[in-house]
Amino acid sequence: MSEHRRGPVRSEAARVAILEATARLFETRGYDQLTMEGIAAEAHVGKQTIYRWWPSKSAVVADCMVEGLLLREYMSPPDTGDLRADLTVWVGGILHFLESGGSSLVRSLVAAAIDQPSIGDRLGEALGINHLLNARLESAVGAGQFSPTRPTQPFGRALVGAIVLLALADEPAEPGAAEQLVDAVLG
User: Fold this and answer.
1) Residues 6+ apart with CB under 8 A from 123
2) Nearest to 132 by CA among 90, 103, 101
3) Which residues of the chain fall below pLDDT 50?
4) CA angle, 108 as apex, 118 and 134 as ends, to 5°?
5) Contacts of 54 (CB under 8 A, 6+ apart)
6) Which site among 5, 65, 142, 143 is 20 to 30 Å from 118 CA-CA?
């Protein structure tokens, strides 16, 4: 006797269509104008298909980020050999993204991660921001720009945490905020 799965089968083609549609709509309309109805129409699937797999638009966007379809340019700081300048450019780019409407996305992702810790875990692991930032700091240690006796991981967490707090506040960053933040963390 064969075992049959109950309920609808998840179609990989539908999943990919939904993620690609979400990425297209996010890029053209932004997070605030993104709706489950719009995603369904763009992906040519029923809204119930999306809700069967994702509880919210932030969960769909999180999967788009995990799949590398969105915002990859913000994940890794550059490595030009000047740690302070590289971190300032990286933080400045993220602050610009937040001021351009990205803070609502970050707030939504934080809320989604609170509701479903697996979202936060998947985002953290797949995007590797902490890993990439830690690798950049380790590179700075090797180049003599960062003391080998100072642990790198807390510095990365402090930068990412400060960025999340700025997004939660949803206020424009003051002029020079990127430099101030990097200076505060690096000393």
Assistant:
1) 62, 65, 66, 109, 113
2) 90
3) 1-2, 4-5
4) 60
5) 60, 63
6) 5
| pTM score | 0.74
Question: Burial code of 100-130, b = ≥16 C-beta within 10 A, e = fewer?
Answer: eebbbbbbbbbebbeebeebbebbeeebebe
CA–CA distances in Å: residue 178 to residues 50, 132, 173, 174: 38, 18, 8, 9
What are the φ/ψ torsions at residue 2 (nearest 5 degrees)?
A: -90, 150
Asked if 52 and 4 count as a contact pair (C-beta separation under 8 A), the reply is no
Q: How many CB atoms lie within 10 A of CB 135?
A: 16
| 177, 159 contact by CB (below 8 A) | no
Q: What is the pLDDT of residue 5?
A: 47
The 3-class SS string of 18-69 reads HHHHHHHHHHHHCCCCCCHHHHHHHHCCCHHHHHHHCCCHHHHHHHHHHCCC
8 A C-beta contact, residue 18 and residue 67: no
